[in-house]
Write a structure and sequence with these properties.
The structure holds 2 protein chains of 2 kinds. Chain A is an all-alpha fold. Chain A has 2 domains: 33 residues; 110 residues. Chain A is built from 5 helices and no strands. The chains are: A mainly alpha, B mainly alpha.
């Protein structure tokens, strides 16, 4: 009888120690929660490059404007092709990170905007309307960069 | 009838703040600043269109670019609110960590 009581009393602390250990391990694992993907320098650089190449294209367009026409010029098609390749590459990179759906959505919308730019060029873009296009792309690339930089989470 | 930029901005901000609920103050400054520029550009498109300086096709495509820009801006704002929640959770967990370590007298976490 005495042996049984001793055994029961010794089991309870063992269980308690086990749960304390389990809780401790749980807390250790949970001391940093990540709800969104980490900062990606390649995406930061890629978007910055995209902003520069778009600005270069728009500055050239601003000199003359673009009359309406059913087909794109070689320079326009080259620019849009290179841009499409660059964004696809960034999309693949963004998709590789878990919890990165927001950035992936932003890139998909940006790709659609460049496709719209192609249509707009064919519809015609007078000199005094280029600033509107610039504003839209600067707001878009700026917003993607702003979120990416925020992912640094206070790191310098 | 010409678009009232201020009224348009007010409607955009009201809709955004309702969607973001109590997280709106975290992103209000950034989102409002960006939406202001977009509202001004939308008003400019409408003015150009009414003046006959922009064809309906050009106006539609220009508006599409502005709409896309506002979507990307609001997605960035959404991401920043998630980062704010993440920071709040981690700050709370750090408090637990410090409390446990202090209670035990050594750094276990």
């Amino acid at each position: 009888m005495i042996t049984t009581i001793t055994t029961r009393h010794s089991i309870v602390p063992q269980r308690a120690r086990f749960f304390v250990l389990l809780f401790t391990l749980f807390l250790s694992a949970c001391t940093t929660v990540t709800l969104i993907a980490p900062y990606d320098e390649a995406l930061d650089v890629g978007i910055t490059e995209l902003q520069k190449s778009t600005e270069t294209f728009l500055i050239q367009l601003e000199h003359t404007g673009r009359p309406p026409g059913p087909t794109l010029t070689k320079e326009e098609q080259d620019f849009l092709d290179k841009t499409s390749v660059a964004i696809t590459s960034l999309q693949i990179r963004a998709d590789a990170h878990p919890k990165n759906e927001i950035t992936a959505q932003q890139l998909a919308i940006l790709k659609d905007s460049f496709s719209t730019l192609g249509e707009l060029l064919k519809a015609g873009a007078p000199k005094d309307q280029i600033q509107l296009i610039r504003n839209a792309f600067n707001a878009s690339t700026g917003a993607i960069l702003k979120l990416e930089l925020a992912k640094k989470r206070g790191e310098k | 009838m010409a678009i009232d930029t201020n009224q348009l901005l007010k409607q955009m901000v009201t809709a955004a703040s309702a969607a973001f609920k109590n997280k709106w103050p975290d992103v209000e400054e950034y989102a409002t600043s960006e939406l202001t520029k977009i509202a001004e550009d939308i008003a400019f498109i409408e003015a150009q269109s009414l003046a006959g300086k922009m064809t309906p096709e050009q106006a539609k495509l220009q508006l599409h670019l502005q709409t896309n820009a506002s979507k990307i801006v609001l997605l960035a704002a959404h991401g920043m609110t998630i980062l704010a929640v993440e920071a709040a959770i981690n700050a709370a967990l750090n408090v637990i960590k410090e409390a446990v370590n202090t209670a035990l007298g050594f750094a276990i976490l």
